[in-house]
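Think of the structure tokens as a kind of shorthand, similar to the way a musician reads notation: each symbol stands for something richer, in this case the local conformation of the backbone. In the example below we present two proteins back to back. Begin with the first one, reading the sequence and then the tokens, and try to describe in your own words what changes along the chain.
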Amino acid sequence: MFDKTFSPISIGTLTLPNRIVFAPFETNYATKEGYPTERQVDFYGKIAEGGTGLIIVQATNVNPEPKAKGTLYIPCLHHDRFVEPFAQLVDRIHSQGAKAAVELVDKSLRATQKKPADLTVDEIERIADYFADGAVRGQKAGFDAVDFHMAHSYTVGDFLSRRGNNRHDEYGRTLEGRTKLSVSILKKTREKVGKDFTLMCRISGDEFIMGGNTLLHGTAIAQKLIEGGADIIDVSAGLRRDDGPGTYSILRGVPTTEFPDGCNVHVAEGIKKAIKAPVITVGKIRTPQLVEEILQAEKADLVAMARPLFTDPLFPRKAREGRWEEIISCLSCNYCQRVQQSDKPVECVQRTTMKDGGKVTRTED
């Protein structure tokens, strides 16, 4: 029934067992120093056990400046000392047959309440170096790919955004200028990791905010990134925080009950039509039937979910075994998001663990 969903896909040297992706999902499970914890390793291990093909480990900081983290319990890859702990996490994912990527992020602008226009050219290029060095560490840890966080209201996303980037030099003004940092990250990384390591870019295909990027701009950005060396475009949407919490842009990034399922799929579809590279879609995709429908219609090559797989890590396995009616459906209530923003370990009101041959039991974890 889900032939396309569970068909393998090869992207360069990377072969995925199926088309389901665990989207980067911040958990607050790391230590304050940025090390993965046993709880975090176990968390990703359970997602892998459930049959997800590609797991993108949550936003991981690449900036070594003490004030740059932006999130108290964010994992880090800004120093070699983090490589071995991450290698253990990757091994756990690989042991279940899944592939592993890590989302690399710089949150320094948001953390210090600065804008792209506040940085010197040297500071901008230093950020590009931080990303490239983080990618090298990810490669050393055994990750199969890195996913550069170039979306939402974080540093690189701000540089890409018409709304966020008010620079008047070569790093602003035009599409060429706004993509200069992103392309620099890709080129510096490719020089260090070689031609066979998979590079992904997560972008906001449409920011859904006045004065921000529309799908027209998101498509042009994706084209520039592919030209710059990206292998996969990971298409998110919204989540610009300029106007405060609970705005339309933010809710498009984590769609709530008011939005129809798959409300952002058309954004990925538009970008897929314009580029010759695999595209990931995400955003309130809660059933295996919708996953298959998206793939069969060729609106995307891969389908990512975060909240639904957090709610029920066994989602893929149940679907593949014809037990889709047993999937515990995400409510799209965003309780997990509210917990994460309070710097507490993320929980779900429906979080379950499968025990005793498939019996569903509630758990506090």
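Once you have a description of the first chain, move to the second and do the same.
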Amino acid sequence: MLSKHKQIRQKRRKVWLRLLKAKNINKNFNRPKNYYDLKKYITRKRKILTRLNKHLGRSNHEKLEEPNRDIIHLDSHIDFEENIDTIVNLTKKVNKHIAKYVRFNFSVDHKKIESISVAGLLYLVSQISKITEAKFHDGAHHVIFNPEYGLKNDMRIRHLFDQIGYWRYFGIFKPPYAIDKSIEENYFLSIRTSTESEFNLLNDIKKFINNNVDILKSDYKIEYQFDDAIKEAMGNSLEHAYPNDFHEAGKIKDTWWICGHYDKINQAIELVFYDYGIGIRKSMNYNLGEDANIALFDRIKDASIFKSDADLIEMAINEGLSKYKNYLDHDRGKGFKRFKNFAKVSGFDCELTIVSNSGKYKMSYNASKDTEQVEKSKLSGDIDGMLITWKINLKMGA
């Protein structure tokens, strides 16, 4: 993935190599006007590359052959369930690139990917966006498709990347692969992003659902609860994820993403929300009022109660961290409990997964038994911001 500026720099180097070759062959070589400018440019580049190679421990031969490029290799399986460590590893690789190699070219190697979830794909989009923003500072993506680092010949994976809008998101409007249109068991709400509360997008989400299933058409109460939950998820990113003084390399304040997936065979709707803000732990400190902070301290001063980020997420689900509780605006701040309320009203089994910092919370609701099962776990490292995945299993509904 090369910017136009770096493509120009590559051409300069090729011109310099041609001049050197001509000089070595012809003793009466006449130097062009830009000879010394190019020499000065190449000398500076060699010094930078020498420092980089020394840091990486490369040999003298590699110093001459290795390109000035950082390659981010993606893992074979990327998701927030069985392979959540790959999400943590991706975060580390991207942060390392921004901290050390942001001035150099970069490539994202997709060749190893064998499976990737919709949530994992959305997170990948956010991480690449961090790099492009850190490099160019104008919100543009400046990337090109390189077949050398493209997807393997797996129609399922290629279909997912195409339909979810991965290539289009980065300005690659011509599909890099021919897609078999016979794959019709999966339908996607393409990746959308914004820095505002675009509730008009709610109509697009509902249209996506209504085009595939009748879950929202049967009862107005169900639709109302659904609207409530979606608005809460959108508002959360703007009101909790980004404090006024927010500033991190590669991140644009108030940014959030959403995408969706309908699996026709398994009859499951999945919606994914994500922001790369400050996460649940810092959000608690920024957004709770003074009185609420005192009340919270009384609840968590016992170390046996307060253990992890997953515990904080659970408290947010149960309204314990609401910014608005006991304050003026009683309509907002109900937390992610609204997702559970929708499940109970609709009569369908559902799963709510929230991941933030180093904590993961997963709630599974059984509609026929009216029971909830909660799983909490600690990640091997931190992820950026907060990811919310909401899955409704229509086949198993009452």
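Compare your description with these statements about the second chain. Residues 4-25 form the longest helix (22 residues).
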